[in-house]
Amino acid sequence: MSSARHSLFRRLRSMSLSGLYRHLAAGLALTLTLALATAAAAADAPTKVRIGYQRSSTLITVLKTNGTLEKALEPLGVEVTWHEFTSGLPLLEAVNVGAIDFSADVADTVPVFAQAAGAKLVYVAEEAPSPSAQAILVPANSPITTVEQLKGKKVGVTKGAGSHYLLLVALAKAGLSIRDITPAYLTPADARAAFVSGNLDAWVAWDPFLASTQAQSGARVLADGTGLANYKRYYLTTEDFSKRGGKVLDVLFERLKATGEWVKANPSPAAEILAGLWGIDAPTVEKANARRSYKVGPVTRAGLAEQQKIADVFFAEGVLPKKVDASDAAIWAPATP
Q1: 56 pLDDT higher than 90
Q2: What pTM was computed for the model?
């Protein structure tokens, strides 16, 4: 018999009968507590995951199309439902109020605005930087060749989008501010129509709008995000689901990571899938996808550094209602990074 067991028996022999009862009762209570906690966790495990996405959510769109996520979640007895949104802010609002459980990728600026509004969201995954996937466009025949020449010009941009941040930092680098131009705050569809019809001097767009407009009109890139804005994209969930849906989130993380790798390794088949869904020809989709990293990884505290820069720039411009501390955001960690 081991010395540890001898020690245990000596302690038990030295106890009074009432002390022994108290010792055994405490052990039974602990066992019962653990058993109840395990049972509660099992009972509280999700049986459904509601996924919100935008039409341009590449990796989620591929997963929705090929059915591999449902297959991967089947052993857990988890059903998937899909919910489409027109843009990132309504999508995260739906996450915040619990209308959906998981958000497809949104531009890096969107969680900053959600945080400023008091939303309690949890970062689940990120796509590595894709700075060339958003850019300031000018018409093919425009005399404008530098950002400095945008002074006094009418520039289309979507308020609060990653393109808005790119415009602000590009102007600042050129010694200008938003007050030196005439900003036209438009949705991507409206901005594209205005740009193609000649009603804008420039437009700040992101892929696939960027690639499709280049293909349609021959528009030139005046400046992209290289050296200015990393343009990362994030996947988020609710506080509740981050606690209950660990295994589901692990599966989602793994499938997103694998899908991103597949899209980059198979550019033509991936473009064919997305072309029909987006109403864009496959070569244009392939060009857009080439500028996106689609490299899915875990979110780190250090990796959120640019989120703070974005928050500070927008607050200084009066776009955010209050200061935001990006380090206050919650982060979920996958079992296998």
Answers
A1: no
A2: 0.84
Thinking of the domain 45-125+232-256+293-331, which architecture would CATH place it in?
A: 3-Layer(aba) Sandwich (3.40)
Long-range Cβ contact pairs of 314-323 (< 8 A, separation 24 or more): 314/109, 314/112, 314/113, 314/160, 314/164, 314/165, 314/168, 317/168, 317/178, 319/159, 319/160, 319/164, 320/112, 320/113, 320/116, 321/116, 321/117, 322/116
What is the DSSP secondary structure assignment for residue 117, as one 8-state letter? Answer: T
CA 138: distance to chain centroid? 28
What Cα–Cα distance (Å) separates residue 157 from each residue in 154, 180, 266? 10, 15, 32
State the chain's mean pLDDT as an integer.
88
Domain pair 45-125+232-256+293-331 / 132-224, same fold: yes
Question: Contact 256/162 with Cβ under 8 angstroms?
Answer: no
